[in-house]
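Sample pair:
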Amino acid sequence: MGKTAIYPGSFDPITKGHLDVLSKASKMFDKVIIAVLKNDAKKGALSTEERVALIEESLKELDLPNVEVDSFDGLTIEYAKKVGSDILIRGLRAVSDFEYEMQLSQTNNALAPSITTVFLITKPKYNFISSSTVKEIAKYKGDISKFVPECVVRYFNNINN
C-alpha cells in the first residue's frame, strides 16, 4: 500500500492557492484525500455538500487522478487514522500562516505522535488569496476569477443574481 496524505480544511470556498498545494501534494504521495471539515459551530458561506461538489468540479479541470474528495467531522487526526493515513498536508501562504499552522501541527503531534504534518508553500501569485477575502469580494459582486476556479465563479455569480 502506498502513502496516503490528507489535505484537511474548510475550503469555503476552494481557491487557486488550495489547488496549487493540492497539485504539489498529488505529485508527492500515492493518494491525496482532500478532506472537507464539517464544522457546525462555524457558519460558512457554503454547505459541506456545496464545498465538496465545487472541489470535485474543480478537480475535473486538473489532471490529478490520485486525488479524492471526502468530508468529515471531529478531529482531523481521528479522520486520518480512520482512512489509514499518517500524513497531513497544510498549505502556507505567508509567514503569518506559519505560527498558527505550527501550533496546530504540534497539537496534532501531541495527540497522535505517529502523524506527520507536511507544509507546502503556494506559488507567490497565490500567497495573498484566502477564502475569507474571496467571500468578501463576492459579497459585493466583485470579480473573483483571478482567485478561484471557474466553477466557483459561476456558483457565486448564480447566488448573487
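The beta strands are 4-9, 31-37, 67-72, 87-92, 116-121.
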